[in-house]
Amino acid sequence: MIRHSLVAIGVLLAPACAPSQPGKSSPSPRVILSPEMGREVHVAALRRARFFLTLPTPFCIVLEGDSSRRDADPELLGALNPEARALPMSRCPHTYGSFVVAVDAAGHPTGPERPSGYIDPYLLEVSRPLSVTPQLVAVRIHSTHGAHFQILYCEAVPERPVYASCGVTMEGDS
C-alpha cells in the first residue's frame, strides 16, 4: 500500500523536480481541459473505479474544486447510469455506517435502525483532473462505504476516447 502511495506522490511531484537550465525557470506545461473533456475524464475514472467498488449499492458523487464542492452534474450522472446507480450527494440515501450505537439510559438504541439487508451507499469525493504531464491527467477518488474507506488514484490521457487506469493507494477503516 505505502509503495503505491509513494509512487503516486512521486508521479505527481516529478514534473516539479525536473532539472532546469541555469537562469531559466521551466514550469511544467499544464493541460487546461474543456468542461466537456473534464467530464469525460471523470466518467472514465469513475467507470474504472467501479472495479474496486463491488457492492450492489448506489454511488453518491460530489466533485471537488479548488476551494468548493458541488454535486455531480446531470450529464456526468447520465453518462454513468444505469449501470452505476449514480446519484448526486444531495440525493444520497441514508448511511448507517458506524461502529458507535447511541443508546438511552436503559440501553436501547436511540438512532435509526438499519433495515434488514440494507447496504450503505458508496460516498465518492472526486477531485478535479490535475495535470501530471502535458499528455496525462490524474483524478483522486476518495470512497467511503460505512466505516471503510479507499483512496483511488486514476490517470487518463485527455484525448477521445478517454480511458482511465486506476489503483487503490490507501484503504482502511475509520
Explain what you see.
With 174 residues, the protein is an alpha+beta fold. The protein has a domain of 118 residues. The chain is 20% helix and 29% strand. Strands 1, 2, 3, 4, 5, 6, 7 and 8 form an eight-stranded mixed sheet that branches. Helix 2 packs parallel to helix 3. The radius of gyration is 19 Å and the shape is elongated.
Give the helix/strand layout.
Blueprint (H helix, E strand, L loop, with lengths): L1 H12 L21 H15 L9 E6 L4 E3 L2 H7 L5 E3 L33 E5 L3 E4 L2 E10 L2 E9 L7 E10 L1
Parallel strand pairs: 1-3, 1-4
Antiparallel strand pairs: 1-2, 4-6, 5-6, 6-7, 7-8
Helix pairs in contact: 2-3
Considering the chains and any ligands shown, give keywords for the structure.
174 residues; alpha+beta; eight-stranded mixed β-sheet; disordered N terminus
User: What distance separates the N and C termini?
Assistant: 17 Å
What is the ordering of alpha helices and beta strands? HHEEHEEEEEE
Proportion of residues in helical segments:
10-25%
Q: Indicate the radius of gyration in whole angstroms.
A: 19 Å
Structural class, by secondary structure, is alpha+beta
Number of DSSP-assigned strands? 8
Large-scale geometry = elongated
Largest beta sheet, briefly? 8 strands, mixed
Strand content: 25-35%
Are there runs of 5+ residues with pLDDT below 50, and where? 1-18
Number of helices: 3
Average pLDDT confidence is: 81
